[in-house]
Specification:
single chain; alpha/beta; Rossmann fold; eight-stranded mixed sheet; two-stranded antiparallel ribbon; 10 strands; 27% strand; globular
Length: 158
């Protein structure tokens, strides 16, 4: 008896949350990141992605670190963030936030137009209905992060 299987529709926030988690999974931070603290993923401007990220990381551990999701207001960006996802803002709004994180070991991800150009590390974009991403290698190096070649192979490199 044949069985038919249909793919469950994945929402855009769930897809972005999965990508953000995988970016964190395939990134190495400098050795000075203490193992007794959580890896903090901060979300600005997209509550739905924050909700999905909380579901995606619940009970998970990366490189010996528990994972915490923190929702931030634009003015409340914390230094404790290891990953920052920016969404729902213009390039001029995002630029000072990215500049504040520029020389810190923080993985910055955004879907803001021109995110790579203002110093962000990874930028989401849709191409032919598919979620794709670009990575700026100069920004990765400046942040002293190492991103796995397996992840970089999937990216458009800038």
């Amino acid at each position: 008896m044949p069985v038919s299987v249909s793919a469950q529709d994945v929402t855009e926030p769930a897809l972005k949350a999965a990508f953000i988690f995988n970016f964190a999974k395939f990134t190495e931070w400098p050795a000075d990141l203490s193992t007794d603290v959580s890896l903090v993923i901060c979300v600005l401007g997209d509550a739905a992605v924050g909700d999905e990220l909380e579901r995606a990381v619940k009970g998970r551990v990366l490189a010996g670190h528990g994972i915490t999701v923190s929702r931030m207001a634009a003015g409340g960006l914390q230094d404790a963030c290891n990953v920052v996802y920016l969404s729902g803002m213009t390039t001029p709004q995002a630029a000072p936030l990215v500049a504040k994180l520029r020389d810190l070991a923080v993985l910055t991800i955004g879907d803001v137009q021109g995110f790579i150009e203002i110093g962000g590390i990874a930028q989401f974009r849709f191409e032919q209905g598919q979620l794709r991403f670009s990575v700026c290698l100069a920004s990765v190096k400046r942040a002293r992060l190492q991103i796995s070649s397996r992840l970089l192979a999937l990216a458009r490199l800038e």
